[in-house]
Design a protein that fits this description.
single chain, about 220 residues, alpha/beta, Rossmann fold, binds S-adenosylmethionine
Length: about 220
């Protein structure tokens, strides 16, 4: 696994490589007991989970308050924390058992993050989390119009929601009215990737999120803005 990781993550030092190795081992062990990921092949884990998660690293700085919304088995938040342990990271998911895995994982890695169980629709209306973060990350959680409603309420004015996407041209078109209603400006950065088309979509927040967003749990999916 070490050689695979070295190839996929050329920017990782020995400490980070040790942690990625531990992450891969725990993911494989826990995946036998609970459904964490369909990707189990070591090369694919290294490339499609670990390396892909690091795409936002150039945009994050030590000490930044970052939330990963719908983190699942920790992507993209945990690989980013391995590379930048000084991030103030919050990992949020609506499935409690995934947080049990993340708790065990972080202890084994010797890293600290805040784990939050809940739906983004509820957490985004909670003043503990609303407009508290410099960045809200998300990967493989929802289509962009839905995702903007789930993630932008967490972000301070001046911060950004950052969505990991494939070919997002159509989603960007469809997200125009959501962006207008949620007071964000959209831009996308293409990523150099061997995994087909990949991009990061930035929703830069220009004014506070109107109080009615996010709407109650389930509504953003049923009636996208
Ligand atoms: N981000 C991870 C990744 O890239 O591998 C997990 C992706 S998984 C397909 C989607 C995750 O989002 C699941 O863990 C699910 O529980 C979580 N999720 C979906 N809708 C959510 C919501 N409204 N609030 C919080 N978590 C949500």
């Amino acid at each position: 696994m070490r050689d695979i990781l070295k190839r996929a993550l050329p920017q990782a030092d020995e400490t980070a490589l040790d942690r990625f190795e531990t992450y891969h081992r725990l993911l494989a062990e826990w995946n036998e007991r609970m459904n964490l990921t369909a990707i189990t092949d070591p090369v694919e884990v290294a490339e499609k989970h670990f390396a892909d998660s690091l795409a936002a690293l150039p945009y994050l700085k030590p000490g930044m308050q970052v939330i990963d919304v719908g983190t699942g088995a920790g992507f993209p938040g945990v690989p980013l924390l391995i590379m930048e342990p000084k991030l103030e990271l919050t990992l949020a998911d609506s499935l409690h058992k995934r947080l049990t895995f993340l708790d065990a994982l972080l202890k084994e890695l010797g890293l600290t993050a805040t784990l939050v169980h809940g739906r983004a629709e509820d957490l985004g209306q909670d003043r503990l989390y609303r407009e508290r973060f410099d960045a809200a990350l998300s990967r493989a959680v929802a289509n962009l119009p839905v995702l903007l409603e789930l993630t932008t309420p967490f972000v301070k004015v001046g911060g950004s929601a950052i969505a990991y996407k494939g070919d997002a041209a159509e989603e960007l078109q469809n997200a125009k009215s959501a962006a207008f209603l949620l007071h964000v400006k959209l831009r996308s950065e293409e990523l150099a990737s061997d995994l087909g088309k990949r991009c990061l979509i930035f929703a830069d927040k220009t004014a506070p999120t109107p109080k009615q967003y996010p709407r109650k749990a389930g509504t953003p999916n049923k009636k996208p803005l």
